[in-house]
User: Fold these one by one.
Assistant:
Number 1:
Amino acid sequence: MFGLPPETALLVFGFPVFWILYTIGFLYVSRRWRRESGDDSS
Amino acid sequence: MSVTVIAFLLLYYVAVLGIGYWAMRRGAGEDLEGYLLGGRKIGPMTTALTLQSTSMSGYMFLGAGGLGFAQGYWALWYAAGDIGGGVLNLSVIGRRMRKLSQMMGALTAIEYLEKRYPSPLVRLFGGTLTVFLLGFYALAQFIAGGKGMALVTGIPYPLALAIAVAVILVYTFMGGYLAVAYTDFFQSLVMLFGVLWIVVAALSELGGLTAANNAIGALDPTLLGVWGRDMGFEGQWGVVAGALLIFSVGYMGWPHVVTRHMAMTEPATARSAGVYATVWNLFFVPAPYLVGILAILILPVIEDPEMAIFQVAARLLPGAVTGLVMAAIMAAIMSTADSLLLQTGSIASRDLYERFINPEASEKQMVWVSRGLVCAIAAVGYLVALFEPPSVFGVVIFATSVLGSAFLPAYVCAVWWPKANTPGALTSMIAGASVSFIWELADLTATTEIAPMLAGVLASTVTMIVVSLATQRIAPVPEHIRVALGVAGSAGPIPAGYLAATDFALGPEAAEIAQAVNGNEQRHE
């Protein structure tokens, strides 16, 4: 991919995908936090 | 000397100073909580961007670019961890630390440690270590700013250095944390815009990423691999783990970064801030490394690899855009330097001066003591940067490795492990700092193939667990802290009784700490 060896492509694209999934997981796990203090939009 | 570049830089400095002035008009400097934590009124997007831009520093434009130029795609190991540093930090300790710091009335990251692990020694050791390391870290930013500005504008290095330090000082003085947070917000956008512009220009010059990689592979195929130039790091998983850890997990041990949690509007701010941090990191973090790698083709010969990004910008971009990119680079440097100076001054004044020298100091006095210390630290940093400037990469890696090693278990266990006690935290900080410091000094990475950060974090974590468990009977965690941990971990807002009972802590709190140390724990009910 993009002229890179497979292991380098995994390093370049795999870790960002992992962190995106982590962020989505964090959003799911913390979905009740908003209720602690009402508005979170400030 | 390019007049256009200087004009853009002046425009940028005026904008930054304007934001600082606006923050001052909002009353940020009126009391200590306002000066040190922006009155705990920082929303999710600003929290995310101040956390990220403070973490990134001039390292990203000098160290990261230089590393990419020297080692090729191996450098991306650092970026791989860094992309998740913000969300990891916010998700693991953000919400709980915001709650606990308010319940305990802590205004600095070191004061918070003493409230959680009651002992003056925690504050004395933590404060002294932090002042030394953050001062050292700020030095790297001065050097980066001076070198970069001197190269791009043609201004002599001493003058360029003086201008960068002066601007940072002026707006840090004006508004304290609020000025730092809002200028960081502005600067993070400038950084993102500037670095992406260089990436696009470099890729256009080289005919796209695939063509560039093919050309690099033809020069030296090992530059495309994950083990560095000439496979120099082949199989060194201890070094790779250190690269992954330092800017991901390591963030949680940096006092100037975890302060961002304490200043959030509310605990739930961490949730949205985590998302903003990841989005910003995905676009920003890999870019400087990539520009460094592409510079292998654009600048086949370069005297100082740390100047790779500056030289690529100067070579490929027109004058006006170079000025904009230069502003972005200065933004990265300044957004970290101002936070470092503010934190160093805050910790030195509140955690050392007020705590151990003048416990009766008024809040107004404290603000001015903090400003005086910031000025003194900047003056010393300027002189060192002028006469004996070390490498930016080396200074940043050293300071961040020791900070992360010393404080990571202390901050994480503070919110997650009720058995983490004072002897455990104190010995953990000493063990982590000592091991990573000795590892760096004796260059043990060369013989062990283990990075200082990994060795230090292992030492501090094991020490925290072993010593805390072994001393539970002789040094139990005070009851009011156990209760506070339960409240911080539970769903729902902080009970009103806790908030009312801890409001006093905005004033001098030495008496309460002394009581806790002597075994007369004061319950917050």
Number 2:
Amino acid sequence: MEAMKTEATLEIERDDAERNELRVAGFDSVAIQRLVGEISTSEPTEFARGYNRTHNRHNR
Amino acid sequence: MSRDIDTVLLKTASRCNLNCSYCYVYNMGDEGWRSQPKRMSQTVTEAVLEQLGLLSYSQDRPLSVVMHGGEPLLFGIDPMSRLVSGLRGQLRPDAGIHIQTNGVLLTGDFIDLFAEHDVGISISFDGPSHNVNRLDRRGRGSHDRVLAAIERLREHPAGERIFGGLLAVVDPFSEPAAMYRAMKATGAPSFDFLYRDGNYVTLPFGKASAASSEYGAWMVALAEEYLADPEPPRIRILDDLMRLILGGQSQKEGVGVVEYGIVVIDTDGTVTKNDTLKVAYAGGDRFERPYNITERALPAFLAQEDLDGYYALSEPTAAECTACPERNVCGAGMPAHRWSEESGYDNPTVFCSDQKMLISYLRRRLGQPAQVPLPSALDAAHA
């Protein structure tokens, strides 16, 4: 069965596998990329600081 | 043990123009608000300005002052103007000043004032669930009035600088994707989510038992939306959890094992603990030795040894937490949510199974090995 697969099918499968790998590692997510970027540069943005401090709580 | 204070909550008004069904101030059994003056007096305000000025210069950590209530805008425009201009004059320049409002009274005058003094504004907004729980005193929903306030703030020339974002309370029976879309449609730069308050005595709304994970499943579905969005705003709680999983630090109470020194100043000047402790039992937020800000010795009061127990509350102490591989990410949640009559705060959070589900899901998305197993249904859905 494997031998009968066309080159196109195999390529699609390779792409799918690559996408899954990226998804599992979070690199397909803009939110994760943004966070990883901030952590790796150790530069939490002013914005990040602001939103955390503003969102301390409200009346639940 | 650090004694630095991260956040001072100023109760500028003790009453609210809304009557939200889930409010811990008015609808969770503590009646302390009844004995409080409706608004902070000029005498208390002056003591607050002086003492917070001293505090901000007496510690290393930058201080954050959050105006809160009740509804803090009920304070009125003139007293609010005196307060925020005074705070800017007294506090160290790196101090943050913020307000958490329901938005109904957020007029252009208030926005101008907050823009002038660089006061960050966060608005409470529950999206599609808003009119279920956030009603005014006549029983009318506040959704449209809040949306109008958000629009006013966004259109203000300083809107981008001072609009912190939206804060919502999770309704586990609602549709997370609809909530995400509704919040994103407002154009707000960030969102945060709180769980409904509860503990082992009174389970949070929507939880069938302490072992169930309705909130965890809701948050996982929300995270799916967030992580798939090509243009995501910020979601503070999810960012904090992922930051902790990746070895960073959280930036707010409730997750991670970090001391966030929080004190509250009521309208009569009484200084209390984190006021969410009211949900454990009536008066649970009170210090054993009462102190009023007008006594004018706040840094000395905060340095007393008998405050050790309060400061230590942020540390997970239950045996289950000590042994849990997710201890440093979860942090045992908010102390208020750990309460039981048998063992006080010495329990995991009542949201323990929810937190395990959410953290395990985020670990998987970050390519990290699971520390606790995902429930099988969730495992199949998100494999």
